[in-house]
Design brief:
The protein is an alpha+beta fold and 167 residues long. It contains five helices and four strands, in the order αββββαααα. The chain binds zinc ion. This is SWIM-type domain-containing protein. It comes from Actinacidiphila glaucinigra.
Length: 167
């Protein structure tokens, strides 16, 4: 482990497999949902905020301007499918399937079996209010990328408990 991993109070979870961030810059298992931000295939100014609820698989997909995704009218759109693929790369299939409660019949989980398990349940569209907090969290993550690298403390991070010095 590197020094920063040893001194971190939060456990650092390395991605299960390395993944490219261009298509799905943000994915998380949070608020009882698999959710994240998916780039538009055609317009680099546009992103979609997509989510699938654990258990019910209620899905939402809308642009960052809150326009509903045309592909998500009757079921999972390509953004949601891409989100599932990237979540499996990030967290591993087992963790994703456990979190969203989508066990595959064969027991062998991958992005395809998780997607199939969810779509076969014929889920309904979910609560669109979910998108705003996801997108604002994504923007917060982006904001840290704009900070110049420094070892000085970030005032915003001060609510983290102080760590003991690494011997
Ligand atoms: Zn979509």
């Amino acid at each position: 482990m590197s020094d920063w991993e040893k001194s971190s109070t939060a456990r650092v979870t390395a991605p299960a497999r390395p993944r490219k961030l261009a298509k799905v810059p943000f994915v998380e298992l949070a608020d009882g949902r698999l959710q994240g931000v998916v780039s538009s295939g055609s317009d680099i100014e546009r992103v979609y905020v997509s989510s699938v609820a654990a258990g019910t698989y209620a899905y939402t997909c809308s642009t960052n301007n809150n326009r509903p995704c045309g592909g998500a009218r009757g079921g999972f759109c390509n953004h949601i499918r891409a989100l599932i693929v990237e979540a499996v790369l990030q967290y591993g299939a087992e963790r994703v399937s456990r979190y969203v409660k989508a066990e595959s019949a064969s027991g062998e989980a991958d992005a395809q079996s998780i997607t199939a398990a969810m779509t076969s349940a014929r889920p309904s569209p979910g609560d669109k209010q979910a998108a705003a907090p996801v997108f604002s969290r994504f923007l917060r993550h982006l904001a840290y990328l704009e900070l110049a690298p420094t070892t000085a403390p970030l005032p915003e991070m001060q609510w983290f408990p102080p760590t003991r010095a690494v011997a």
